[in-house]
Write a structure and sequence with these properties.
Number of strands: 4
Shape: globular
Order of helices and strands: EEHHHEEHHHH
Radius of gyration: 21 Å
Largest sheet: 2 strands, antiparallel
Length: 245
């Protein structure tokens, strides 16, 4: 069996000029799944919850309390950031868990070669980069709202003294570093895990991959948690910087 590892996602077909890749197809499936779960679950909420609703409420309450403690114990701030951070966590987690759907075993001919029908969403750097940019924009918006546009810009461009100007340059470098650290950490871990399992499936496909697949389940949870928490911490830092100004 030939092992074909591609750093970029493979196109399955084209809609006009738009290439539909295997990672994009899985991303659409994950998004539709989460939307359906939210709609169906919202319609089935009861005033006296049963087992499943109790579990969901415990997860929501635990997540809210964790974000509240991280953000500084301010319920108003927590209510503003909780929907974004929790949605980010759930989307990344479900997308990572969807890697275990056996779509890589199914292949289609795209006109050039046979490619897997599904590919991990977070193993596509383009998808991860978009999530990172959304997070970074949110962080900047929080800073602008808290400090005002001119006050926030003065964090990066300040000619009051040579030291202030140099610190502003370091702040710009720090913002760029956030993009690299957030995106490369998530993409690198998920892509490496996908490659590792693929290699072991080729070498010995029966029992050897099982421990590594269990490890990847843990990695899926940890990477979703790390990305979401880092975004939360950066949002908190942007707010604190604005308050100090």
């Amino acid at each position: 069996m030939k092992l074909d590892i591609s750093l970029s996602p493979e196109p399955l077909f084209h809609v006009g000029f738009f290439p539909v890749t295997n990672s994009f197809l899985l991303m659409v499936g994950v998004s539709l799944f989460l939307v359906l779960v939210a709609i169906i679950g919202g319609r089935r909420l009861k005033s006296i919850p049963r087992t499943f609703q109790n579990i969901v409420e415990v997860i929501f309450e635990g997540s809210w309390n964790f974000i509240n403690s991280t953000i500084g114990g301010d319920p108003k701030k927590t209510n503003k950031v909780f929907p974004f951070i929790f949605t980010l966590f759930i989307f990344i987690l479900v997308a990572n868990l969807a890697n275990f759907i056996p779509g890589s075993a199914l292949t289609v001919y795209n006109g050039e070669k046979f490619v897997p029908v599904l590919r991990g969403v977070m193993a596509d750097y383009g998808m991860v980069f978009v999530l990172t940019i959304i997070s970074i924009i949110t962080i900047q918006v929080v800073g602008v709202i808290m400090c005002g546009p001119f006050g926030y810009i003065s964090k990066f461009i300040n000619f009051k003294s040579p030291i202030s100007f140099f610190v502003g340059i370091l702040e710009i470098v720090g913002e760029v570093a956030k993009i690299i650290s957030l995106s490369f950490r998530l993409f690198g871990n998920i892509f490496a895990g996908e490659v590792l399992i693929s290699v072991f499936l080729v070498i010995f496909p029966f029992l050897l991959p099982l421990p590594f697949m269990c490890l990847e389940l843990l990695t899926a949870l940890i990477q979703a948690f790390v990305f979401s928490v880092l975004t939360l911490v950066f949002i908190k830092m942007a707010g604190e910087t604005a308050e100090s100004h």
